[in-house]
Design brief:
five-stranded mixed β-sheet; 6 helices; 21 strands; alpha+beta; globular; Ribosomal Protein S5, domain 2; 37% strand
């Protein structure tokens, strides 16, 4: 039996719950961060056990399904990407984070390009779209990945670890020139994510972003062709152009990306995470290390 239900209330733990999908479809369009091209995404309900699946509609008329699973992850600069049978889907992290945090387990996301829209650089547009159509429980239990022992990865000063704990709790830290140390810590619940994490935008130094866009243009490669103050929080010395949307916006966006990357494990994850200067590569390294260590977790 399918039942339309409100989104879960703020709680320290997802707890036992049923799988859920969307109550109905939504469609969103916009410019992409790296290609700079326009893309349209249609996100639709899917049956229990389906998971999150991206469907690329190709110019030759074919439609290729790419499951949002860590096995299909491909390294791409400044984004999270999947590739299956030669078909690429990238910049998926903000949609993945929004679905995960709002506890929507099964959807089909159809896209007419290889990259999702970036919108304003935050996850708020995705959250608003999900909220607008609603959430539907599906009558089957949602299985969780429960962490049993600490797993850690590091690269220089970057370190990311997960240890046993109830719910999903993240402590994040970054230190930026002219900004100093920036920290955030809290449980990732639907309310907390929408209020404190989703508004945080992708960020970077203004001069580096503009240089990257110029490089991509000159080399005729899809790199930062859609970056601008409308699609990212651009830093100039100790300031953000237009101001920060939330206090400590950079560290909150790193946590946003981490929530999205963690969702590629294929099931919601319960544990306590400490993230120091993390980014997409380290996030995916943690997911891979955790999933390959069968004694570090159990599916409950």
């Amino acid at each position: 039996m399918h039942q339309d239900v409100p989104f879960p209330h703020a709680t320290s733990s997802p707890g036992p719950r049923q799988q859920a999908t969307l109550a109905r479809s939504f469609e969103r369009s916009g410019r992409s961060l790296h290609s700079g091209r326009h893309a349209t995404v249609r996100v639709s309900p899917a049956p229990a056990g389906h998971g999150i699946v991206f469907r690329r509609h190709l110019k030759d008329g074919r439609a290729i399904d790419v499951p949002a699973h860590w096995h299909y992850r491909e390294s791409q600069p400044l984004s999270s990407a999947l590739r299956r049978d030669g078909v690429l889907v990238r910049t998926i992290e903000h949609l993945m984070a929004s679905l995960s945090a709002l506890r929507v387990d099964n959807v089909l996301a159809e896209i007419d390009a290889d990259e999702l829209p970036i919108f304003d650089g935050s996850a708020t547009p995705w959250c608003e779209a999900i909220r607008a159509v609603g959430r539907r429980e599906q009558g089957l239990p949602c299985r969780m990945i429960r962490v049993l022992r600490t797993v850690a990865v590091e690269n220089g000063r970057r370190r990311l670890q997960i240890e046993p704990g109830r719910g999903l709790h993240i402590t994040g830290h970054v230190a930026l020139a002219h900004f100093g140390s920036i920290d955030w810590s809290g449980a990732i619940t639907p309310d907390a994510f929408e209020r404190e994490i989703a508004p945080a935008r992708s960020f970077g130094r203004y001069m580096r972003a503009m240089a990257g866009r110029a490089y991509g243009y000159m080399m005729r490669t899809d790199f930062l062709q859609g970056v601008s103050p409308r699609s990212a929080a651009l830093l100039v010395r100790g300031h953000v152009l237009g101001g920060m949307r939330v206090p400590g916006e950079p560290v909150r966006h790193r946590i946003l990306d981490l929530v999205g990357d963690l969702a590629l494990a294929g099931h919601p994850v319960e544990g306590r995470i400490a993230a120091f200067h993390t980014g997409h590569e380290l996030n995916h390294a943690l997911v891979s290390a955790l999933m390959r260590d069968s004694k570090a977790w159990e599916l409950v």
